[in-house]
Amino acid sequence: MKISSTELIDLIATLNVAEKRQFVGAYNKEKNENTPEYILLFSSYIKYPNYTDDQIRKLSRIKNFARVKHYLQKQLLNFISEQENLSSEKEVMNMIVVGRALADRSLLEQAIKLLNKARRFAFKRQLYKYVLILDDLLHELESRVGSQNHFDYFISEKKTNDFYGLINSIKQEQEANEFLLKRRLFSMKNHALMRSEDSAKELDRIFRQYVHTNENEIISFDAKGKYYIVAAYYYQQHNKLGKAIAYFEKCAQLFDEENPNPSENYNSYVVVLHNLMFTYSRLGDFGKVREVLDGLLAIKPRTKLHKKGIMQSYITYESMYCKFYPQFGLRKQKLRESETYILNNEKDMQQQLYLSSVFHLSVNYFIDSNFKKALEIINLLDKLESQPYLKDYISVAKIYRLIIYFEMGKTDLLAFSIRNTYRFILKNMLMYKFEKEVIGALRKIINTANRVEQNRIWQETYSKLRKLQTDTNLYQVFALFNFSNWIHCKLKKLEYSKLMLG
Is the pLDDT of residue 373 over 90? Predict the structure, then answer.
């Protein structure tokens, strides 16, 4: 079987940093043995994401490359399956296995009792596919002991309605999973900052029909929660923020009131709150952001994994809150906490959250005119440069770093960095209008000593950036660093604490 390299790379991209380490650890336990070839191949794909198969083959020196690639995909699918196989499902599956074993030993009454218990448990947890499996198995066993009541129930109208209800719920869950997966793949394949009209059109094409589903007909918790997330994401990217917030709030309320298994859906709940804060911030409603932040800290985590999920989301949005509210009384304390957490947990943090929190933290120091510290923090992102789906963010970070050099008066270093940044952007095909305007302005400014001419350049660039800022596809760029307001500060000689406001 021939495996598509794109398919394999997409599969690897779905793993976070911790999962990549777990995959290597889980399948490479024997330290005395040589590292398996598929692990070497896995490491090569991670380290060199832009290399072709021929380049990877030469680099890894794997002889039977196609076979090893196929085996790697198989192991990855097994690993992902294990990660998704939650404890409730395992519990039901174990009861089914034991029930079958009891039946094989002719202990039918005990088997039926256990399987009925498994069915009640599965129904309570809304594991509808297992309810159907258990119904069929119970029908088989009860027919073996001659239970006429079971026959009557199985063919009754109530049973028929239950059956079609379960089938419909399973269908809805499968559809919800399919579109949630499409949303994730869409985010990875398109530039992370969504700065493209074509990307927005693709999003509309993929999700429009599903989003207009009648949500009142969705029954199960799983299908309903995932529908809310996809719908909120859809409206968020179409700049219908009121609708996006409404769906995220519905999803949060669903977790609060109807979650059939809180311990297993815990991280999904944190993700919903994280996205809710992001959408509040787009509306400038930082009072609501503060409410969710305080609520996150009030949650008592059940496991270390839960605590990690809470803290990563908390640190990201706490540093952003401090950036937009430099007058916040606890700002210095919160920034120290954020920096300590980032430096101590950088290897365990989800890369997108790590990038955002580092960027927000650096801008906080920039606002305080501590440019040396701002540069030190933003330089932490250099290690992420090889990640293909983060190129958009790295591009913005590089432009922002040019501005730090300018503020520090490092003219020679700035001229050199402008050339390097320009090459990086062209190589990765990321030359958007805002990059062109900022780089062009800095290049002109450092090559003229005439104050009047410099002010003209600043004014011209400011006007162009203000127009670009109205483009909803550029929202996240200016949310990371408000380039137009920075130039406005230069023109009006305003304090940097005004940088992200207005």
Answer: yes
